[in-house]
Amino acid sequence: MQRRTKGLCGQIFIDYECVIELGGNSLWTENQQKAIDTRDKSLLVSAAAGSGKTAILVERIVKIIIEDKVDVDKLLVVTFTKAAAEEMRVRLYKALVSNINNQEEREFINKQISNLPSASISTLHSFCLNITKKYFHVIDLDPGLNIGDDTQIAILKDKAMEDLLEGEYEKGDDRFFNLLEMFNNRRDEEQIRMIINRMHAFIMNRPFPDQWSQNALKNFTFNMEEFNNSIYYKEFIRITKKKLKSAIDQVEIANSIAGSIVNNEKIMAILNDEISQLKNLMKKLHTGYESFYNSLILVKFATLSFKCEDLDIKENIVSYRNKSKDIVKKIIDSLEFNAPDYMFEDLMDMLPEMSYLMDLVFKYHKIFRDKKLEKRIMDFNDMEHYTLEILQTKEVAKELKNYYKFIFVDEYQDSNEIQDTILTSIMKEDNVFFVGDVKQSIYRFRMADPTLFLSKQDSFRKTDEDSKETIALNQNFRSRKKIIDFINIIFENIMSKYIGEVDYDSEAKLYLGSKQPFLDEKVNVSIIHNDSDNIPSEEVMEINKIEAEAMYISNQIKELLKIKIYDQEINDYRYICYKDIVILLRTTRGWSETYYETLNNEGIPVYAESQTGYFETLEIRLLVQLLKVIDNLYQDIPFIGVLRSPVFSFTIEEITSIRIHNSKLSIYEAICSYVAEHNDSLRDKLNNMLNKIKLWKKQCRYMPINDFIWKLVIDTGYYHYISAMPGGIQRQANIRILIDRAKQYSESNIKGLFNFIRLIEGMKETKRDLTSAKVIGPSEDVVRIISIHKSKGLEFPVVFIGGLGKKMNLQDIRDPIIAHKDLGICPNYVNIKERRYSPTIFKTIAKEKLQLETLSEEMRVLYVAMSRARDYIYLVGSVNNIEQCTSKNWKTTLSEYDVSTGKSYLDWIMPVILKLPQYTDGNLKEILDFSIIKLSQIYEDHKSNQVKDKYDLQDYWQRVDNAKEISEEVRFKLEWEYKYQSSSIMPTKTSVSELKNEKKNRGNSLIKISETFNTPKFLGQDHPTGAQRGNTIHFILQHLDFNKFRNKDYNIEQEINDQIDMMVSKNLILQEDLDDFYIEKIAMFMNSKLGKRLLAAQRVYREKAFNLKKEIDDSSKDYVLIQGIIDCFFLEKNKYILIDYKSDFYADEIMKNILIQDYREQVQLYRQAIEELTEIEVSESYIYFFHNNEAVKIL
């Protein structure tokens, strides 16, 4: 049996309780059972994607508790995230409850359940916090230290850097100014700030930073013998051998082709000589660097000139030989400034500067730490170092080692060196359970070190001790066979210890584990070829590669909605819905926005966490501009933005009038001058604005920044204004995030609006951006666009991986100084007097190693992305020149060196597809649907779809623009009574509700507009109004996960209550807006005949927005654009059923008929909109009155 539970955003977590079924009995696989049952040993479990590692971990813990009678508080369970820790706690609770069988067990298990909340099941950081709180006295630590929030830490970090640099400037130390000149490419100290910050972050992730620093500096005194015996030369040999092997392979291929040419003796002699030179060079590597270098510079490639009637053969010989020459040339070029004669002198020359740099780093660390201690806060790194310092006391380490009977480390591949050292301090030889998958280690940017897992694995395998063992879990219970086969084909050919840091061998590859039925669909790989020459020049910029990919994907999504997949939760097939689909991107910044806009324009409901920059969102940008103006009126750009904003709504003409009046003054001075010299309506408007700003200036001086900003957005109406914009809920949530950050700022010792603005600007400059608020619920039927990193640990029925043609980011290797855990400090050589700037031998080797490590991480990211898919996977990428890619870039031998030269994911995937039409288990074509799509074709399809759009507003906006240019003469001529009076009183754009109300009031000589407002909550209101109830019901029904109600075992009212509680916990709805009315009424609806039809529907649409162009009346040819939102409609027998929810109450049939008559046309408009939008008939329409629990059919 497999138990499936829903996670956030429609992703699925699967609890694999068994994977083999024999005679109706549920069993684990052999290796799973071994991982669960083995005792008296430390285990390292390599658990591949989809292998059910969490379920195994839970089962092992439960058995240890129940069968071995170990108290839960004697277990240490370390997870990678807080969410994982909480999920683990919940799973353990459920498992313990299900194991209560008799009175004796009941008492013991109840004790474990009661201790579960306080058990050591947490992230390592939470564990460290507990240690520092308990043993603070051991290192004389303030017991009141707490974790500082990100904003506090960022403020103190910037202040520490300011203090450091100011202090060095005041000292006037020549070494400081020399360092500034050496590593600054600008006149300010930004580069040195960056170097100090990065070096600090790096060394503080070493267990013993002082020791690491001292050892790194000692290496600068190397002589040739010490270098040849060092890790540097060992790494140089490893990398250079791969290059030379590939160079030899290329010449040998050319040589074998030359064997087919008549009179080939001269050609083959040249090629054989080159092979001999390269093989000799390979041998020289083992005689030392100087010997190798001297042999390298003597390598000669003779001129190769020959005749061959077969031009293809000649081209191949030349091509392969040139590849070999290019490899050798790159080796020579990389060592251009590393001649044995002076390379150690360069290192010695750099030693004083690097020693002084490390002094600065440690000074900075002390200033930063002291500022945190002054505030009685610490960051996560501090916590780790305090914990390690405490554990250096043998008594404490021994106490903890004896206390914890078993230690479990989840996601071990994502641990770093200091975390591993902490755990090693408290573990025994035979009581640790490590579980992870090095192929899914994708957090090197957070200092995660996959080599820890690999070295642990090697040591466990090589040891003769009975106390250590490794177990491989490589059966995948998630994906269908063709996806697994495709993943294996790709990574068997590209992943190795050289690139990927693990051999993708028989133990690492995936094996099909699921017995569930899968659709026999192929893996889809699509390449978009940029043939923009075939697109009209004026249109080329309108459709870039990102947009083209999004357009292609949107078309595929529309087709997917017609397909059924097997859903284990309902034990049946159902149609794919939007929330089954995810689009994964390597980077969402600059991509997700375009994808979102494109899919949204295509009518596909979509959600994406914007990564363009929180501070660049419209609502935050305008608000920050307003804050800047309040702080300093002499800032023209923000001031003009504020004038144009909805806060003051000045027109371009008005601003122009102000500026023309005094063009040489600042905009503020120009405004003051205008006010002084004019007496008109614009002057009054400007005076009103200046008075408001003057008031805000006073208020911000005595109010906390967070309170001031909240008052500002409410008093100006800005908060409510943005709610009416597209994505209004998201925009309001973003404002609340800024206010929350302002609250954190207010609690620091740095005060004032100026400093808060400075903090924001600093965060923008250093790219420490905030994340936009997440306002989507788990049951929302939308396509998700997320980063590959955020998809880790999740699965989706349908996965699109976009941006595969995008170049991988190798920016770190270009830093002037590279810090590496094994290679130490690796700078460029800088000689200001000689104006020489070149890589040292350390930098040359470190650059190569770091590039390989970065590419290895990228390969694992690709593996994570591909292994998220359950039923369908689409790989999409774009290239500029498909001919060059297929004939050159992707025409490789797939050697380890060839793979290391890949610049994009397509450079890894496509050579495998092009080279391997066959594989051992069958034909690649049987599992792959490969296509090349021209950009021009996507463009044509897009233009064709535009022609089909039913609601073209272009004509409307053109008329608006033309209206602005109407002359007074024309305006006079238009002052006559319009023949079609109905058109003149109807707005160009209206809503369904407005249209209903207008018809209801038609015939009245005067339409009264209500000026009443809802009673504020603080004045008290015993019961919600009908409108409030209606809004709440609509919101709940929009967010309920209907799939949960399809299981007959569910208690409907309890399920509704649970889901509403979840909405409250995520701040999607307020607790004070709720009462039992909603649960009762919604449950009655779900149990009604109409509700049951809804739950059984093929596809359900909720809160669907539309635009509909409709004639005003029969006598007029004018149209009105009607906007509306349809509550619900669902597909049943290929026809739609429409439901409109109403919270009105009727006491008798007369009132009921009046309400039906009022709403009839509204429902008919909804029906018309659905049929025009979808071209599918609406066979039935209903109004459901929740107060009366009745569905009324509208004919």
From TrEMBL:
Gene3D superfamilies linked to this entry: 3.90.320.10, 6.10.250.2380, P-loop containing nucleotide triphosphate hydrolases
Gene Ontology cellular-component annotations: cytosol; DNA helicase complex
UniProt keyword list: ATP-binding, DNA damage, DNA repair, DNA-binding, Exonuclease, Helicase, Hydrolase, Isomerase, Nuclease, Nucleotide-binding
GO molecular function terms listed in the Swiss-Prot or TrEMBL record: 3'-5' DNA helicase activity; 3'-5' exonuclease activity; ATP binding; double-stranded DNA binding
Co-factor(s): Mg(2+)
Domain UvrD-like helicase C-terminal: 509-793
Entry-linked PROSITE patterns: UVRD_HELICASE_ATP_BIND, UVRD_HELICASE_CTER
Coiled coil: none
Entry's EC annotation: 3.1.-.-, 5.6.2.4
Nuclease is among the record's keywords: yes
Annotated Pfam families: UvrD-helicase, UvrD_C
NCBIfam families xrefs: addA_Gpos
Function text: The heterodimer acts as both an ATP-dependent DNA helicase and an ATP-dependent, dual-direction single-stranded exonuclease. Recognizes the chi site generating a DNA molecule suitable for the initiation of homologous recombination. The AddA nuclease domain is required for chi fragment generation; this subunit has the helicase and 3' -> 5' nuclease activities.
Subunit composition and interactions: Heterodimer of AddA and AddB/RexB.
Protein name, entry field: ATP-dependent helicase/nuclease subunit A
